[in-house]
User: Which sequence fits this backbone?
């Protein structure tokens, strides 16, 4: 037994409804209008989805770059602070030894440069008390005229005054070491400030 009699039949027109038949041209226009309406709606949805995707991608990229920058800065700061003992050793031990070893060479270099500008003029080298003999022995034997080495108790280790004729110069390795130490201290202070503000 069939159940077709229980279901409504849409193939046959209802008796009280007037049927309107479309021509082939009108039907094609209606299909084209429906297609364009659906295509336009789909296009609008795609554009909206793309815009939303760009906004989300931009915010995610911005957040990632911010995190990466923060992580890099934090790592750099922590690495800098881990190097603090090395900086202290460098400033307190290594650099002073290097400067002490090279002090006479630096003085000789300065004297030779000044002697080229003031040929044949007397040379005077004023050094800290108790170092005249040691520094005099380190000066090259072939240097002529021979520099006159004089001690000055007012000068500290790493300081000297050079004079060739009327030209004068001062060498102050202590001031150089102090400036280097201050630069390291300032750098480490900034790194500690950055870390304490996290």
Assistant:
């Amino acid at each position: 037994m069939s159940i077709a009699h229980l279901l409504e039949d849409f193939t046959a027109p209802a008796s009280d409804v007037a049927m309107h038949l479309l021509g082939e041209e009108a039907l094609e226009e209606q299909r084209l209008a429906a297609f364009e309406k659906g295509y336009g709606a789909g296009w609008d949805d795609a554009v909206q989805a793309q815009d939303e995707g760009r906004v989300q991608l931009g915010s995610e990229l911005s957040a990632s770059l911010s995190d990466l920058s923060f992580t890099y800065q934090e790592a750099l700061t922590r690495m800098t602070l881990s190097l603090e003992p090395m900086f202290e050793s460098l400033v307190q031990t290594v650099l002073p030894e290097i400067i002490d070893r090279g002090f006479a060479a630096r003085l000789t270099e300065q004297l030779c440069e000044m002697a080229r500008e003031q040929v044949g003029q007397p040379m005077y080298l004023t050094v800290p008390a108790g170092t005249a003999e040691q520094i005099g022995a380190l000066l090259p034997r072939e240097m002529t005229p021979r520099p006159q080495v004089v001690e000055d108790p007012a000068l500290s280790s790493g300081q000297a005054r050079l004079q060739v004729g009327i030209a004068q110069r001062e060498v102050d390795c202590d001031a150089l070491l102090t400036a280097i130490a201050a630069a390291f201290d300032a750098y480490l202070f900034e790194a500690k400030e950055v870390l304490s503000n996290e």
In short: Residues 35-82 form one domain. The mean pLDDT is 79. The radius of gyration is 45 Å. The CA atoms of residues 114 and 167 lie 7 Å apart.
